[in-house]
Amino acid sequence: MIKTIIIFSSVEGQTKKICLYIKDILIQSNHLVDLVSVDDVTSNLETYEKIVLASSIRYGKHNEKLDKLIQDNSDLLNIKKTAFISVNLVARKSEKSRAGTNPYVAKFLKSLTWKPTMVGVFAGRLNYKLYGFMDRLMIMLIMLITKGPTKSNTNIEYTSWTDVNIFAIKLAKL
C-alpha cells in the first residue's frame, strides 16, 4: 500500500469535500490515506510516500498555516511525490482553471521553493448564506467586478467533479 497524506485548509467546506473525494479514489487504488486539517497536522511527513496539500483561497491568498508548512518542509516536499490543490472561485472560468492561468495559483507557486509534482486548480462553491456580513459584501463586490452572481440567495457549486476525478486518477498513478 502507498502511504499518502492529504493536508487541507477549508473555510466553508468545499476544499475538504474535494479532498474526501480524492481520498476515496486513492483508497480504491491501494493507497493508505490520512486526511488531516492543516490545523491538526502532527504527523511526520517523512513517513509518507505521497503528500497532497490543498487550500482554498480567501481574499486572494491561500491559508497562512499551509504556506508555513510548505516553507518549513520545502526540502522534503521536493524529494517526495507531491500535489498542490487550489480551490477558488476564479477557477469557475475555464481560462483561469489551470496553474499557469490562475493568477492566485501562479503567484503562489512562484513564491515557493517547493515545486509540486502535480497541481490541481478547481472551482469552489459560492453560497452567500455561509458568509458573514463583511465577507458576503466583499465577495459580492468581487463577483460584481468579475461578472459573477451577486444575489444574496446564490448557492452554486462550480466544482467540476469530472476534473477532480481525472486529477485523482493521475495522482493515484503518480
TrEMBL record:
Q: Which GO terms describe its biological process?
A: protoporphyrinogen IX biosynthetic process
Q: Which UniProt keywords apply?
A: Cell membrane, Flavoprotein, FMN, Membrane, Nucleotide-binding, Oxidoreductase, Porphyrin biosynthesis
Localized where? Cell membrane
Annotated GO MF terms? FMN binding; menaquinone-dependent protoporphyrinogen oxidase activity; oxygen-dependent protoporphyrinogen oxidase activity
Location, primary (coarse class): membrane
Query: Which EC main class describes this enzyme?
Result: oxidoreductase
Alphabetical GO CC annotations of the entry are: plasma membrane
InterPro entries per UniProt: Flavodoxin_dom, Flavoprotein-like_sf, HemG, Protoporphyrinogen_IX_DH
Q: Name one Pfam family in it.
A: Flavodoxin_5
| Membrane topology, as annotated | Peripheral membrane protein
Per UniProt, the cofactor note for this protein states: Binds 1 FMN non-covalently per subunit.
Biochemical pathway: Porphyrin-containing compound metabolism; protoporphyrin-IX biosynthesis; protoporphyrin-IX from protoporphyrinogen-IX: step 1/1
What EC number(s) does this enzyme carry? 1.3.5.3
Q: Which family does it belong to?
A: Belongs to the HemG family.
Reported function? Catalyzes the 6-electron oxidation of protoporphyrinogen IX to form protoporphyrin IX; under anaerobic conditions uses menaquinone as an electron acceptor, under aerobic conditions uses ubiquinone as an electron acceptor.
Q: What is the protein's name according to its record? A: Protoporphyrinogen IX dehydrogenase [quinone]
Source organism per entry reads: Anditalea andensis
Q: What is the lineage of its organism?
A: Bacteria, Pseudomonadati, Bacteroidota, Cytophagia, Cytophagales
